[in-house]
Amino acid sequence: MCGIVGYIGPRDAYPIVIEGLKRLEYRGYDSAGIALYDGTDLKVAKTKGKVSELEKCVENEITKTGNLGIGHTRWATHGVPNDVNSHPHVSNSGDLVIIHNGIIENYESLKKELINRGYTFKSDTDTEVLINLIEEVKKKEKVKLGKAVQIALNQVVGAYAIAVFDKNKPEEVVVARLGSPLAVGIGEDEFFIASDASPFIEYTKNAIYLEDEEMAIIRFHKKIKVRKIKNDAEVPANIQELQLNLEQIEKGGYEHFMLKEIHEQPKAIVDTYRGRLLRDEAIIKMAGIEDNMKKFLNANRIIIVACGTSWHAGLVAEYIFEDLARIPVEVEYASEFRYRNPVITENDVLIAISQSGETADTLAAIKMAKSKGAFVFGVCNVVGSSIARESDAGAYTHAGPEIGVASTKAFTTQITVLSLIALRLARAKGTISSSDFRRYLLEMEMIPNKIEKALESDAHIRVVSDIYKDASNFLYLGRGYNFPVALEGALKLKEISYIHAEGYPAAEMKHGPIALIDENMPIVVIATRAEHYDKVVSNIQEIKSRKGKIIGVITEGDTIVRELADHVIEVPDTIEALSPLLTTIPLQLLSYHIAVMLNKNVDQPRNLAKSVTVE
Ligand code: G6P
Q1: How far does residue 407's CA lie from ligand 1's centre (Å)?
Q2: Residue 57 falls in the annotated catalytic set
Q3: 3-state DSSP call for residue 184?
Q4: Which atom of ligand 1 is nearest to 356's Cα?
Q5: What is the DSSP code string of 262-274?
Q6: Between 434-455 and 265-273, two packed helices, what is the crossing angle to 10 degrees?
Q7: Which residue's alpha carbon is at the smallest distance from atom 2 of ligand 1?
Q8: Which of 356, 361, 602 to mutate to test ligand 1, by most ligand atoms within 8 A of the CB atom?
């Protein structure tokens, strides 16, 4: 939610901040703004809409000069997305300026106090309250900006990543974080500030990721100072080397990031199992599991918490963990779990799944589980993210940066990691025979090629998309391992094409959704060869007799469903437990093509954000 960028150094800040905002637009794109110190004064431009709108606005309103700048791309929380509510926000004196990602929960009481002291507010935002609180502290306590920020943040309840500067001291920027990510890129006598490292990777490979409750005072020509917000104590700056490169965050010839990321899945899955799946030795090696094997083997149960697409990966994992490793699993929405006073014991293992590693509800859920003694294992994509750091142990998915808001390769790599874990545990517990184990390893290694094969249906899927793009509703049905895939397929369509879609277990159709079926209803049925194949075929018959339009996702060569369905999309055969890795692919492409045909913004669908750092 919200992206923040900043620059201080010898270069022009404007292009760095604008390009950085474009890279962070996946975090929110309701409105955008920039503040520059042009050598004599503070210049602010902000507008509702995307960064491209901001560029036009800057052309008309301010000069682009200056070596100090901060910018913001917003996902609205307090106050509708309009020009006034856009960041940056300036204090009443006009001296201080701030960008903020997060929520100040006690902003109303703080605002009242400030109004009593004569402050006025232009916007409805919590952020404008914060900058004026900082100003009030600075004046009242007669302290420097860094100290004022520190004192003010101690009065604040909520989450934030902020960058603040004072136009009268344009050689200094103060940043702080609690609950929202913030990285500082360290160049030669220059500094970059951003919600993630993507805005500055072409300038420096060295960065500090601030920890929660840390702030930093960044001064041009000086060293960065990191401090604890609570007590102002200095902490050593932990400079890390970035693994990211520019190519990974560019579209590489594809029309959209989503399409690029769909096509990257074969490689992403190889990257995920590389070094972990050692087929010749017939072993799976994952440090986070080996080091904590006892915890897993003695676990009463595994609780999986996640949100959105990651939650669907958790559901797939439930099937495979129970099926192969015979460990009871519960899958919970992080947002429900954290607020429902669950029974958690020291013998529980909690697996948190998160692409971004920053989802506020998932983070809060693991903190809660940890406080009750559970062992927390993180499955994250973003290295060094909050959830990865908060977990006791974990395994990265290694999918590479995922920029399209609708998650694709993150999902399949999450399933890959979770399948490897389930297989490793099954081997350790002896719930899988060595021949079956070998068969799984071999099959897992073949999945990337089979995904390539599934991607070959792209042109055919486009034809099917064209036929159904104007439907108002879609149903997605699947059984067993492919029930979560049905949920995920429906979610993809909703997210990017704004067509209402529901995922259902195929047999549950009879208990409600069947009433919706008529000749206008497209129904995507995942009907690959599996244990309950015959039952799915019966479900298809039921749909057919009610004139529903059937789009079957079938195993290559299958003739039964081919005869019954209006359209079929083939995927290669595989072991049932690994089939979600293949059946997901045509559903991603179907939603992608429909959204493109409907002229929707595929990579940045309305109202959504890639990283949901508010609850
Ligand atoms: C948002 C994104 C989804 C994602 C979900 C969970 O809703 O738009 O694509 O699945 O958050 O995010 P996480 O980063 O925790 O996997």
Answers
A1: 7
A2: no
A3: strand
A4: 14
A5: HHTHHHHHHHHHT
A6: 160
A7: 610
A8: 356
Among 422, 514, 529, which residue's Cα sits nearest to residue 475? 514
Q: How confident is the model at residue 578 (pLDDT cuts 50, 70, 90)?
A: very high
pLDDT tens figures, 128-163: 999 999 999 999 999 999 999 999 999 999 889 999
Instruction: Point out the ligand 1 atom lying closest to the alpha carbon of residue 609.
Output: 8
Percent of the chain with pLDDT over 70: 100
How high is the pLDDT of residue 209?
93
According to the model, what pLDDT value does residue 611 have? 78
- This prediction's pTM: 0.84
Q: In a mutational test of the pocket of ligand 1, which residue from 196, 262, 309, 488 has the highest number of ligand atoms less than 8 Å from its CB?
A: 309
Lookup result for tokens 């507010």: 121
pLDDT digits (tens, 9 = 90+) for 348-389: 999 999 999 999 999 999 999 999 999 999 999 988 888 999
Q: Are 478 and 316 in contact (CB under 8 A)?
A: no
What letter represents residue 180's amino acid?
A: S
| Contact in structure between 43 and 35 (CB atoms under 8 Å) | yes
Return the beta strands (E) in 529-578 as ranges: 549-555, 567-571
| Ligand 1 pocket, Cβ-based, cut-off 6 angstroms | 307-310, 354-356, 359, 362, 405, 407, 608, 610-612
